[in-house]
Design goal:
With 399 residues, the chain is an alpha/beta fold. It is 35% helix and 14% strand. The radius of gyration is 21 Å and the shape is globular. It starts with 17 loop residues before the first helix and ends with a helix.
Amino acid sequence: MTVRTRPFASSTYAGGRERELLLDAFDSGQWSGFRAGVQGDARELRDVTSADAVDLDDLRFLGGKYVRKLEAMFAERTGCAFAIACNSATSGLVMAIGAIGIQPGDEVLVPCMSFHASATAIRSFGGVPVFVEVDPLTFNIDPIDAASRITARTRAIMIVHLGGIPADMDALLALAGQHGLRVIEDCAQAPGARYRGREVGSLGDAGVFSLVETKSITCGEGGVVVTNDPSIAFKCRLIRNHGEGAAQDDWSEEELRNVVGFNFRLTELQAAIAVAQCEQLDERNRLRNENARHIIDGLRRFPQFTPQQLAGDCEPAWFILKFRYGGDRDALIQALAKEGIPAVGGYTRLLHQHPLFAPQAARPRSEAINREFVWFSCIHPPNTREDMNDIIRAVEKVL
């Protein structure tokens, strides 16, 4: 008899005030709240924090009330002065890359194991992604390999907190400080995760979060950049909203660098839903972590399974539960599918294998890890411990 015949619940669900706030935004008649132009000199907005922007009137360059409310919420919980909402985390990464001043030929270290936006964002301003091996235990960027790939052209490190597990920030920040490198944290899969008591995104120069519908909290599509640097925040705001239109004749070359902007704006309708979801983030993470730990504990009797490990003093916000599997990975996944359990066998290809970046030298350690991957993405609520028991029972049956 098949272990499971019903599907797992979707990660996109309303658990709070989503409908209430969405209807409020709908009835307001202000569905965007943005204007491309700005009255006066945009530099007057440079030091306006996200907390201060909430209560200011007619800041149409900074968006409507729900956009600014969402930004204030992210700023408060990460301990950052500024948060800049946008229409996707991909856009947020582009904004962050532009805001730290990446120019053509500048190299940015990035793990070879990530969603391709981590690398393509670097290309958006002419930067060159340099792919780094991942740690065999945490699956995050390896500080030792990163150090070996620094050249005279290296300007920044893109750190990805894969699967909701913080990277080794002590080692990476020390490396960045030693070489004068900027640090961007790709927190798309890790909202609410903490490293030494601080939320990810707040440890580097800028952090980027995702609100796409598969993520821990969502408004369908969206992203947020956080930073404590007013110059980065200002440049992100310009890149988000046709920044060239705000440029003045007396702006310096530095102020004009990467200021040609895009339309990366988040609508009020999306922001309203995101505010309601952000209110639930801690509880959703608690349930994700409980489900993840339950599966890890349930599979301990099988030495073939090695779960993703934590780096030092950190608190995960499990997004996808990733194991290395010391057996026939593809056969296992096929067998689990017959038992009604969806599991994924890692990335189709790693970033250095993508034709956009080819030819690239092999990253043998990361390639070997990827061939062993078994991922369980259904650890999210409203799936329950009983649903996780089906995963454990299916593995027991198969093995």
